[in-house]
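Before going further, learn to read the protein records used in this course. The integers have meaning only within a learned vocabulary of local backbone shapes. To see the layout at work, look at the sequence and tokens printed below.
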Amino acid sequence: MTQQQQNNIFEDWLARYKGMFFKVVRVYAFTPADQDDLFQEIAVQIWRSVPSFREESSAGTWIYRIALNTAMKWIRKEQKHREGQPYEHLEHLLTTNESLVDDRLEWLYEEIAHMNEADRAITLLLLDGFSYKEMSDILGISENHIGVKIHRIKKHLITKSKNYDHHGV
């Protein structure tokens, strides 16, 4: 594959899957600077991986796997630098004068941010409409395990949502 072919494929994928990149970035990075850094890291990893794409799965599934793996590595590295306080920089998510929809969306992103890596990845894939089979392929865990995790995640979010609704938290 020539570098021009690699660049063309990458540019096509970037245009097609840009929204997915931003969702992954938003869930794993919280400040604008961190989001820019993570977006660039994901883009670089995908560009480097273009020649190894074998079409065993869809490009979207394959790219999602790279984006999630890159984000999980990035967050582990960042947490080491933050001295055990990985969520202290979330204050900017708490806004007071936004609409209810924006508040609930920010609440959801904050809840997702507090999940462990596996639950965070599963939630993001679920919100993007991936099937259990696709999630299983991306994350390398069984479809049954995906189903159990989704059930627990939904139960947790429903409980937290009731607290949010009653207390405005």
About this structure: Confidence is low (pLDDT under 50) at residues 84-101.
